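Researcher: I'd like a structural prediction for the single chain below. Treat it as a standalone chain; there are no partners to consider.
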Amino acid sequence: MIEVAASVLMLIGTVFTLIGSIGLVRLPDFYTRMHAPTKATTLGVASILAAASLTIPGGVVAVGLKSLLAIMFLLLTAPIGAHMMGRAARAGGIGFCPETHVDELPPAEIERAGEEIPPSSRS
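Model: Treating it as a single chain, here is the predicted structure.
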């Protein structure tokens, strides 16, 4: 029964990782490409780690706890990393694809180390 559950989790993880990888290649611009690895691939890797925790010998509690910590770390850091990449791309002037018609964000102001920020733009 454990092998069946691990196989199903491995299959789910493989499918989501494949979908995320295809999305990374096929989506039109940087901002939409960020969604593929942060959404689909995160779920895929979490499923593969869960399957590994069921099948790796050495105590289900010890291996399961390590896998759970890895999954939690992944779920916490992937969205933060994508957010920071999006902010850096926006500040760097990377544009949207031509099909994007709505840009609700104001132009980004780049803060450089060592420069004084005017008091009117501080939040």
